[in-house]
Amino acid sequence: MAGMDKPPEEKRLLFINTNENNFPPRRNQHNSIDSEVRRHVMLDIGKARRKPSKDRQFVTLTWQTQKHTGKPESPKRRHYGYSKRPEECQATISTSTLYTLAVFEREWGEDSFSAYGFTLIMATGKNAMSGTYSANTFWSPFAFRKSAFLKHYQQIFSSPDVLIPLYRRSSLELKSIALERSLMTIQCIESRLTSSDTSWATSDSVISAVLALICYNFSNLDFDQAMVHISGIWMVIEARGGISTVENNQDLLLMISWVDITAALLHNTKPLFPLPMNLDAFVRPGLNMLPGPLFGLLNGDILCDERLLAVLACMGDLNALAIFLQTEQVTKGDTIWSDEEQMGLLLNPIAHNLLNQQQLEPPKPDTPYEIILESLRLGAIIWIIQVKRRCRSYPGTAQAHITTLLRTISNDTEAGFPWNCSADLQVVRLWLLVLCSVSEPSGQDYSTLMRIIASEMKELNLVTWGQLISIIRRMPWIYLSEVPDLSTL
């Protein structure tokens, strides 16, 4: 494959904590540094002498480099469609072979992002083998820039000829290697944290290594552990003087914000870190772009409520972004979903504001404005999650948010009365119902949504899905990869 040359031979590194307080007595051979070094050296000697097994458990592949231009692959073609020209990606089994897992096991042990990379290869291979769209993947563009491992094997992610046999034959080995690499990274971090030198223990490299573990946790769908590590980053940054001490490293700052917002969306909590000041890739018009059906909410009472105004401003930002994406979709097609970094820069400021506006308790039935605004906030979060999933930069689903929102807008609750106050609010409610129905709800929620939508369509004398969409067109655009089957309603 183009750009997939074998990496140079490298020695595995042994990280040893030489702090005098933790240096074990020489007589204690079981825990001594000498024993660690001896085991490390003997392991390499053993591997060098080991002959390859005749019954190999890993995939044998050849990565050909015909017509290699030397140009890095465009990120916009990294992981969508799996369509490729023969000269761009060729993987064949022949006498000239590169034993993929053997290389993976031998190289890149010192790359803290390698655990994330192995898990991402496994997840991408699973998606490629299934042949169906699966978005439970966490793509980190910053990791691809920072990691030598990911840079070297970048093109493997768009090559099903490599990914599918690698996943089919070696998924367990990949998982094992990823776990081993993550444990090595944890040991290195712990070694640094025990240092008496604060600048050494709280350095950028420590934060970067923890971020690598978070990427591994996200790609491995271990969201609770990711939250533990994000809290750990917060403590490290506080110890070094606050988030302002990271501002000189823009990639690191953006990556911290990236995983912080992702974790907050997954756990429905407020972000731990403030939004970086330079996240202004998209002009945020706020109330100036408020969707038409929401203008009726701008009355005297609501203008005095800072939280409600903030939610409406986010709806204006979302509407402006939706118009932009709808136009891009028409002109560029599905390629707009392949630049997860640009999409994140557009979405994350809105998501950050919405997450900071959540209440500790759900709105009471006798507070109609609170019900409407909380429904809009949840709807906007669901919209953002679905766009992130289209870009494969969000490892979870919106199901928990959909369940919460459905309780608010369902006809079966007392909270249904605010939506009948005006025709515009009925349009808003219909938009929320349609949004939830196409955002991968649970089976039970989907049945409830279809029942409510069928009732609303009957009341409005609507027959087709297109007629329903035409009614909600004044609300933010919803991307529809497929239309629900109305024949079952």
Name its key features.
globular; 17 helices; Transcription factor domain-containing protein; mainly alpha; disordered N terminus; 53% helix; 489 residues; 3-stranded antiparallel β-sheet; Fun_TF; nucleus; two-stranded antiparallel sheet
Strand order of the largest sheet: 2-1-3
DSSP strand content: under 5%
Shape: globular
Largest beta sheet, briefly?
Answer: 3 strands, antiparallel
- Roughly how many Å apart are the termini? 49 Å
**What string, H for helix and E for strand, traces the elements in order?**
HEEEHHEHHHHHHHHHHEHHHH
Q: Based on DSSP secondary structure assignment, what is the total number of beta strands?
A: 5
Determine the mean pLDDT.
Answer: 78
Q: Which value, in Å, is the CA radius of gyration?
A: 26 Å
Helix content bin: 40-55%
Pairing-aware structural class of the strands and helices? mainly alpha
User: How many domains comprise the coordinates?
Assistant: 2
Low-confidence stretches: 1-11, 20-30, 49-99
**Given the structure, what is the number of helices?**
17
Name the assembly state.
single chain
Keywords: Nucleus
InterPro entries: Fun_TF (IPR021858)
Protein name: Transcription factor domain-containing protein
Region (Disordered): 63-83
Layout of strands and helices, then pairs:
Blueprint lengths: L32 H17 L10 E4 L27 E2 L5 E2 H7 L7 H17 L6 E2 L2 H6 L1 H5 L7 H34 L4 H4 L2 H16 L3 H17 L10 H18 L38 H27 L7 H16 L12 H23 L2 E2 L4 H11 L13 H15 L5 H17 L5 H7 L18
Antiparallel strand pairs: 1-2, 1-3, 4-5
Helix pairs in contact: 2-6, 3-6, 3-8, 6-8, 8-9, 8-10, 9-10, 10-12, 11-12, 11-13, 12-13, 13-14, 14-15, 15-16
